Amino acid sequence: MTYSNNIATYKILYDLKVEVKVQDNIYGIPLDDLFLMAARINKKRSFLFVSKVLGKHIPIHPAKGILVGALLAARYVEERTKKELEITSTLISQFMKNEMNDLTISSFIDDSNPIVIGFAETATALGHAFFEAFNDADYFHTTREWLDGVEPAITFEEEHSHATSHRAYINQELLDSNREIILVDDELTTGKTALNIIRSIQAKFPRNTYTVVSILDWRSDEQIAQFKSLEAELGIEIHSVSLVKGTVSVEGHANLNGNEQESLSTTGDIVQNVSYHEISNPSPTNFKDERKATYTSFTGRFGLTAHENRDASEWIVKTGKQLAELRTGRTLVLGTGEYMYLPMKIASYMGEGVFYHSTTRSPIYPMLKENYGATNRYSFPDPMKHTIRNYVYNISPREYDDLFLFFERKVESEQLDALLEELKRAQISNINVIYFHEGSE
């Protein structure tokens, strides 16, 4: 990467080059603190901003993902009210200095009652962390999953994605109001996903105000004009809030040709000590998957109030401390797919030397290259649905002593065979599979 006069140029792979022109970075956060770049195996978009703060493709301190959500919430308030918040300087300082010890962020937004929506799959945790800043709000995240026999309240498309269809399984009464809706995503590149969900919601549950919140906003003038056009067409207001705003231009091609590297080669084999841990789910939903396994309401997948989220805090702290007793050394907590927030939050209470990220559907081209966003890759069928390919990136062999693998609901051991076999290449001896069962202690 080269940087001058607010222009950063990234030579990603072969002759693929991306130029970023920064127009607004009000908190002065270095781009290097926010993302790396990688080539994307996708005909619709050849590159990817690989976040260093979300806990999706790159391991992070778990509190980092919580902190960036709070910082984005502070930015939202300051942008909408044009007033500075006292907490903002503290959040910026912690973020810039990586001061993650004893991080406690309580709700600090009292005078707003929005409905917050996080986008699957990458921004489910970011949306939840953003939502936690409100004393009185509701949250849910979209999903790519189908629930048999359940009609989604809304559906919409993410046109540039590898998995395009989104849906929301919530009680329709939640949307049947004039409350502001805040859409939370990690980045806006074209803004089409936000436009699509606004159209979908407005057709069934009309209201006056939407706000689109993101860490990065790369929309062009033409794409911003499309938001203005939709405002005029539907008679609504659409606000936008971001930590960094600018534009992106792309030159060249990565010339991938299907020659994809997998994870770093390892020598010898490893004996995996795999153990399974069922943790009580004190807040089951009425929704079950095809195997009749019950989801937890704490994820926000089916709607979550601020009060219910606060009720979950004691259980989350207790669970984190309980799992910390199973650790033997340097630890990786791995969420799965859309199931990101609860594992990340629990990991933040598991002690020092704990890192967090998640499996993903996103196909990124791996390359062992300095400052590249996917230095290695592990590929396996989704344990929940073997027809879907999943990946996890950036785990070096022998980097961790313990792996805590979280699932939103029970997974049978034979469903994990392919994943565990692939993870042998990571040379992690102790693997703990964590899922929740219905009932309370």
UniProtKB/TrEMBL annotation:
Origin: domain of life: Bacteria
Family annotation (SUPFAM superfamilies): PRTase-like
InterPro entries: PRTase-like, PRTase_2, PRTase_dom, TRSP_dom, UCP020967
Ranges annotated as spanning the membrane: none
UniProt domain TRSP: residue ranges: 299-423
Residue span, Orotate phosphoribosyltransferase-like domain: 34-247
Name assigned to this protein: TRSP domain C terminus to PRTase_2
